[in-house]
Design goal:
The chain is α+β, with helices and mostly antiparallel strands. It folds into two domains: 116 residues, Archaeosine Trna-guanine Transglycosylase, Chain: A, domain 4; 77 residues. 33% of the residues lie in helices and 26% in strands. A hairpin with a 5-residue loop joins strand 5 and strand 6. Helix 4 packs parallel to helix 6. It is globular, with a radius of gyration of 17 Å.
């Protein structure tokens, strides 16, 4: 997909390869995006919003398109794997992350939709399931809290366990993005373990 223009969906929660995420779609720009993707059988990129950038993500009446993207220029290609309508009438989709994409030529359309050129970013190494085994109970709890239990199964790979933890743990956004940017799975796991230690220490220090 290198060189093609890809729609970008900025979110407060990152999507990583091998992980699924439910989304509720209500903004017209994203309804149009989902419709186009489903008709063409293509996907879009989920990119993590930078802290404090939410107000720059929306075009309000009388405003022009933004020139500075509010999200990090490395996201994950998402494919729509399920869709339906919620009881509230809104469109619900489930997406699954495949490959990370370096984004360039980022620009915003008049309707507020972000577009970019994507360059697949390869990954290497392994995150062994054995060393992540101790964290599966934590992931199970996070899945329940976030309403994602249906996506959690016994057959998750070490990479999926690691990536879901990065998605769901309450660690700082810049730390999440640094972990996403790690091309080597072993380095990503080492960084995640360090972030977990810092999270536990911060919660202990605050009396939680």
């Amino acid at each position: 997909m290198s060189g093609d223009l890809i729609p970008v969906f900025p979110l407060n929660t990152p999507l990583l390869p091998g992980c699924k995420m439910p989304l509720q779609i209500f903004e017209q720009r994203y309804l149009d995006m989902v419709s186009s993707c489903m008709k063409a059988g293509t996907g879009f990129v989920v990119a993590l919003l930078e802290p404090g950038s939410e107000t720059r993500e929306v075009i309000r009446p009388g405003e022009t398109a933004q020139s500075t993207p509010p999200f990090y220029p490395l996201g994950t290609q998402a494919q729509i794997v399920d869709f339906g309508q919620r009881e509230n009438g809104l469109l619900a989709i489930t997406i699954e992350g495949s490959q990370r994409q370096d984004l360039s030529g980022i620009h915003q359309q008049a309707d507020g939709l972000w577009l970019a050129q994507g360059e697949p970013r390869p990954e290497s190494g392994q995150a062994g399931r054995a060393e992540l085994e101790e964290l599966t109970d934590l992931l199970d709890e996070l899945m329940i809290v976030n309403g994602l239990s249906e996506y959690f199964g016994d057959e998750l790979t070490g990479e999926q366990v690691m990536n879901y933890l990065i998605m769901l743990l309450p660690i700082p956004v810049p730390t999440k993005q640094q972990l996403i940017q790690c091309d080597d799975h072993q380095q990503r796991w080492t960084g995640l373990r360090r972030a977990l230690t810092e999270l536990v220490q911060s919660q202990s220090g605050s009396g939680h």
